[in-house]
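Re: [help] complex structure
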Amino acid sequence: MIEIENLRKEYRRGAETVVACSVRALHIERGEQVALIGRSGCGKTTLLNMIAGIVRPSRGALRVAGTDLARLGEGRRDRFRGRHIGMVFQTFNLLQPFSALENVLLGAQFAGHDRAAARDRAHDLLQRVGLGERLHHRPNELSVGQMQRVAICRALINDPELILADEPLGNQDQATGGEVLQMLLGIAREEERTVVMVTHDLDSAALMQRTLDLEHLKEVA
Amino acid sequence: MSADLLRLALADGLPSPLVIRIAVAVLVALVALGVWVRVDRIAWISLRNVHVRKLSSGLTTLSVALGAGLVAAIWLMIAQAEEKYRQSYAGYSAIVGPQEGAPLSLVLSTVMNLGYAPGVVPMSVYRELHDGRLAARWGTNYAIPQARGDYFEGFPIVGTTDDWFTKFARGRDADGGPRLLRFAAGERWVFGHDDFVAFAEDLAKRKEAELEAAAADDHDHAHDHTHEGDADHDHAQGGDQAQDHDHDHDQDAELPVAWRQAVIGADVAAKLGIGVGDAIVPSHGADDLVAHQHGEAASRIVGVLAPTGTPIDRCVYVPIALFLSMSGHEAIRETAQTIEAGQVQISAIIYDAKHPLAAAQLRYEFQTRDEAQVAWPHIEIAQLLQIVGNAADLLRVIAWLVVAVAAIGVCVALYNTMNERRREIAIMRSLGARRSQIVTIILLEATAIAFVGAVAGIALCHLAAYGAGELVQQRTSVALDWAAFSLDELWLILGVSLLGGLAGVVPAVKGSTTEVAQNLGPVS
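Output below.
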């Protein structure tokens, strides 16, 4: 699903070149569930953004679902992301003006899916995570756990092959966060989706099939 | 049908305004369809964003509404004023009035009830036109005298003859007959040309008698002399009876009952809630609080005219003898010369002849005479509308500038939200939104604000026309039809919406260049 070789992201800061992320080699199979760990600032989120096509690598090879993202222009990367990748963020990044249902629908609308079909699927997903009674609630009317579940549904709306999660437990307590994470992994497993999760929490990482320490670019478990 | 229309429009070889409009409408419809196909999945996102920022969106919408409303109001005022003014002079081929004042003043006073009658014209001119030398030359359809200067509850009182009801024609009906004034209730009073002539001659005789008595007696109270007589003679019988009227001009003595009858216009009836059988008391001057009340001329309403949509609806018509006999009207009515000649003076004469060139020749006739001038209402009003049109063009430019300023307001308001919306835009991008979709969302927001503003502006304009209609009618004699919507208003909505869309370009470009990765991180 993901193939990386000598991938590097650099930024210029005045005369200085800052290396934000460097990965010698990484290979993740379709359907695999992988945790990325590492100290703060080692480039975990940058790597996730490159895999998502949000950030273009400075050099190296990056293939996701057989597509060389490093060679694609911004518009095509956006399209690719919309169709193949679902994202879950640390603070869930739900949009306040929109209801739970609308937040889930957004990705489908950007991808150009049929509105009625997308609405049915969003409905089903929210029912599946136990939010059938909260469809029209705004994010500020939901608990943290409920927001996280909405974020997971939003990531799944376009039926993506790859789910990227950046610290998806946020500041939740272990019990609630763990429960929702189990839910995400359960759905992903059922539907053979690949999950790559950035986390600093080793307990959460333990739920994944593999854990990679990005800082050292070597497998630690 | 539409093919016929197109063929007709192309008949001249060159694209007519109609063809251009049809082409533009088709083009706009196609573009709108194409845009909608592309944006229908994300339009609701724009609308939600507009809805969320209620205060900011509301204020910018209001500014657009004011600009669009101003443009619409100018269109409505000018278009309706032109139409009403053109409608108003139907039937007035020529107006013969005093030499004093401009022809436009004469037309405005006689046709539109605006301003004051500029002076008086001797009755001899009226006689020439009605049944004298000029009538013989051109064949008179009607020569109708008017005497003006008094009011009832702010509505002008016009002294005239019953030719006004039986001969004055506002064009032709469908059957080719003259379109006379119609009555909604009651009927006309009777006071014809012969009565008017008899009244003038009677007045001259009495004046002569008064002068003789004064010379014989040399007493100042000679003018208090009165004729004793039957005040209730029927004036429809002809001029002889006019001599028998009680012509006591003492301010407290009532004038003959047969003269004290009035026909009121439709607006007078509607606005004052009066009708047949009610009484009116004329007053000298438009302001009833300070005006002198002519109690001696208190009259009974005998008829109410059907609406014409012209200033005729706002007048009270009384026999010209009543008007001229009211106390204080002696100076208007007569001079030593006119009374000696058995004549009185009047404000104007409405003239229409059988000869098609009579109106033009009439003007040349009076260019060499000093007792009257001739005004052509269609020429004077066309010139007035030209002047008003020039001023309106300037107002239109100012109104469009207001719209442009409002559009800049939309631009600034949206631009200022782009900083606070960086995270929102970054999230949308992370969900797969392309830059072009972000641009579209913001452009649609600007367009939606402008569209709602334009529609609200037009609604405001019509509400204002409804609310200020009475005031406008008092000042301009134009009865605004607040419910008359024009096709131009659709173009206004389209134009303002496009302008709003343009105003969204800069914020849209700024929003679309939002750095995604930097704005996705946790908020502290």
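The mean pLDDT of chain B is 81.
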